[in-house]
């Protein structure tokens, strides 16, 4: 039995020795390939001898360099082009065969040659990237040169990647042109806006002048000629006077509306409680007249144009008082809540940066299907005989709220009063 | 109370009519002939005897040849007339006009009235300051 075992051991030892030899040869071969001592291998794979060259590994890179969009060259320490891809030859519009062996600086434009020299010298120790120009058939091509030192078999070489910037530059120029045009249009718009403002100002004054005369002459007519005028004629004159009064208010309103369209808006911190109370002072007589009770719950302080916000309060309070039910004491309640998002249905958030102010009245209300009319210019829901007004007040209010980057809406139904909701940023 | 003499420089015929009408019904003012502009006003004053000089002069701002403020300046420089209270009125007063008028010595700057009632009120206001 021990003889059997001994034979097995001997056999295994022989196999191990063979494997060790194979391993040694394989390692040696790999080492030789890695260090470049061999270029090719001949392998007998059973079906014959096969030649494997190391060029197979290279090929991927060669194809890549040939087909990439940039130009690529390799320079030796004297700046001579040892290798270049066909893209570079295309960029400088020179046949490949004539490029190799040339000094790279021969392709650089005169005014860039010195800088190229500097970069060439510097790039052996660290990478550089710079824009300059190269020749191409008489024309200059804007390029970006990217320098890197390479460790190659035969020593150190400088690789330069040349990126053609022609289309980039073209796009840049277009962009600059577009920007210039935009600036010019902006300026023209500013001028036009200013002119419009001036026009509105002058027009409104010049329009008021004749109105003033019509007004006075009408009243002179009434006082002087009332004996010569019959009842109808007197009524006509009174209609003239009434129309003139409306026209005056309209012109002022239109002027105010146009002023809102101009850019500037001076903001300051406003205590809305104070402002609301101040505004209501102006309505003292009407409030007494209609037995109105107005409750103002705490309102925030916010950043806005005081004059304009006052106008908003004036318009809304004026409407709340005007469109009241004839025999009922007027009740107006003002409340507010802070919210975090710019939405009139947002829920309360004490840390929010917007506030929603609600002004609710118990007046005649309106049909919500006319909601968009309320805020439109000159649209009214009632005839001017029933309720006076030019129909521009709410349009001005809406414009002011929008200028403050806010939102405005109203909730109402006939016979059930109206609630106006204003959303305004606090800062 | 004595009747106050008013001298007015006003180029707009309608405005002349309005003032004339407004004063007709009051007994407290006498309207001297209306000058069409600042130059005429001064010429007229030069031709008036000291006893008949106006108690108040009203100047319309927008007049040809010489406007309200220009006339105001000249009157204040003149020894004969600088003691007469001067009022400037205009259909378009603005902050600049108000400032300049005060600076040059006007006692009142007024908006041209828009109704007969306002004309009456204007005359009442003038009576209070002269």
Describe this structure in words.
The complex is a heterodimer of chains A (427) and B (130). In chain A, 48% of the residues lie in helices and 22% in strands. Chain A has 427 residues and is an alpha+beta fold. A 5-stranded antiparallel beta sheet of chain A has the order 4-3-7-6-5. In chain A, a hairpin with a 5-residue loop joins strand 13 (407-412) and strand 14 (418-425). Chain A is elongated. The termini of chain A are far apart. The mean pLDDT of chain A is 87. A 5-stranded parallel beta sheet of chain B has the order 2-1-3-4-5, sandwiched between helices. The mean pLDDT of chain B is 91. Chain B is 42% helix and 18% strand. Chain B has helices spanning 13-24, 38-46, 68-77, 95-104, 116-129; strands at residues 4-9, 29-31, 56-60, 86-90, 108-111. By secondary structure, chain B is of the alpha/beta class. The longest helix of chain B has 14 residues, at 116-129.
Topology record:
The complex is a heterodimer of chains A (427) and B (130).
Chain A: H1 2-34, E1 40-44, E2 49-53, H2 55-67, E3 71-75, E4 81-84, H3 86-91, H4 96-99, H5 113-122, E5 128-136, E6 139-152, E7 155-164, H6 166-225, H7 231-261, E8 268-271, H8 272-282, H9 284-289, E9 293-296, E10 301-304, H10 306-322, E11 331-339, E12 354-361, H11 371-374, H12 393-403, E13 407-412, E14 418-425
Parallel strand pairs in A: 9-11
Antiparallel strand pairs in A: 1-2, 3-4, 3-7, 5-6, 6-7, 8-10, 11-12, 12-14, 13-14
Chain B: E1 4-9, H1 13-24, E2 29-31, H2 38-46, E3 56-60, H3 68-77, E4 86-90, H4 95-104, E5 108-111, H5 116-129
Parallel strand pairs in B: 1-2, 1-3, 3-4, 4-5
Helix pairs in contact in B: 1-5
